[in-house]
Specification:
single chain; mainly alpha; 14 helices; about 0% strand
Length: about 300
């Protein structure tokens, strides 16, 4: 793995986070604005990003597709199982357990994963990452919303009606377009790409605005953050990669698996934590914290492949 590519991508994200910090400190954006932007990302921009990820992609009969599907299913099965085991061993109460499961299961496979896979393996391997992103979004808009609701300090009751939302609809549309190779006009493709891409900097700005409310003591001197980071960024990925090495998959697909399983907390987790659970600040601390330390942890995990 080329650690320079990871460093460059992280620096881009950090610049966006700094812009968010500056904007909040200068009162360019406030808490009300952040809530509105969060809602825009969750309900409009991220769904458009999901759909744009499959527009123009071609279905192939390559056996690597089936190997990749196996790897994708393995990753999310392991992360869900390991997160459940972790909160049980820590004996967290329901709200805290649900929150930590939300943060442990969902990784930043899209915003950071796409440029990494493209830079390391080339454009032709992006299609394999699309499967991770598709399943990610199906799970995040179902199980993710459920966990965010159960972690709520606002005593918000979860409703199964929440499963039927624009995010899940976007996932279904993406699958239909990809499987049946439905042609989409270029202006529509461009519109979805431009709007979807806007989710990336806006997500980082929201994280930055949340970081602006924190003291360095809150972010870096909390022992629970380090425990969480070690479990999510080192223990879980190491277990998953060692198991995946036993599968009959190519080295390139194993590399993509490693990148996806070792990514920091997904920014959409913070959006859902805020939208459904009122825990945006707490979740964004973990997102920022794991993103910083991913500069160290991801190269370490890459040594296992």
């Amino acid at each position: 793995m080329d650690s320079a590519i990871l460093l460059q991508r992280m620096l881009v994200l950090f610049i966006m986070v700094v812009i968010g910090i500056y904007s909040y400190k200068k009162n360019i954006i406030d808490d009300h604005t952040c809530r509105k932007i969060t809602s825009l990302i969750v309900n409009v921009l991220n769904p458009m990003l999901i759909i744009s990820g499959v527009l123009g992609e071609k279905m192939t009969g390559d056996k690597l597709i089936f190997q990749n599907i196996l790897a994708v299913l393995l990753m999310y099965t392991l992360l869900i199982a390991l997160s459940f085991l972790y909160v049980k061993l820590r004996r967290y109460e329901l709200k805290k357990a649900s929150f930590y499961q939300l943060m442990l299961i969902f990784n930043n496979v899209g915003f950071i994963g796409i440029p990494l896979v493209k830079g390391i393996y080339g454009d032709e391997y992006i299609i394999y990452l699309v499967f991770y992103i598709l399943l990610f979004n199906i799970i995040v808009y179902t199980l993710g919303i459920y966990l965010a609701s159960k972690s709520s300090d606002k005593k918000a009751e979860y409703s199964w009606k929440s499963l039927f939302n624009v995010g899940l609809l976007a996932c279904i549309v993406s699958l239909v377009i990809f499987i049946f190779q439905i042609p989409v006009m270029e202006p529509i493709q461009d519109a979805f790409k431009y709007m979807g891409d806007a989710a990336i900097p806006l997500s980082m700005i929201i994280i930055g605005s949340s970081v602006a409310k924190m003291s360095l003591k809150e972010l870096f001197l909390d022992r629970e953050h380090y425990t969480f980071m070690i479990v999510k960024m080192l223990v879980f990925p190491a277990i998953c990669v060692l198991i995946a090495r036993q599968l009959p998959i190519s080295k390139e697909l194993l590399g993509i698996f490693m990148l996806c399983v070792s990514m920091p907390c997904a920014s959409i987790s913070g959006m859902l934590a805020e939208e459904y659970g009122g825990k945006g600040t707490e979740s964004n601390r973990l997102i920022a914290f794991t993103t910083v330390f991913s500069l160290i942890t991801v190269p370490l995990i890459s040594l296992l492949i």
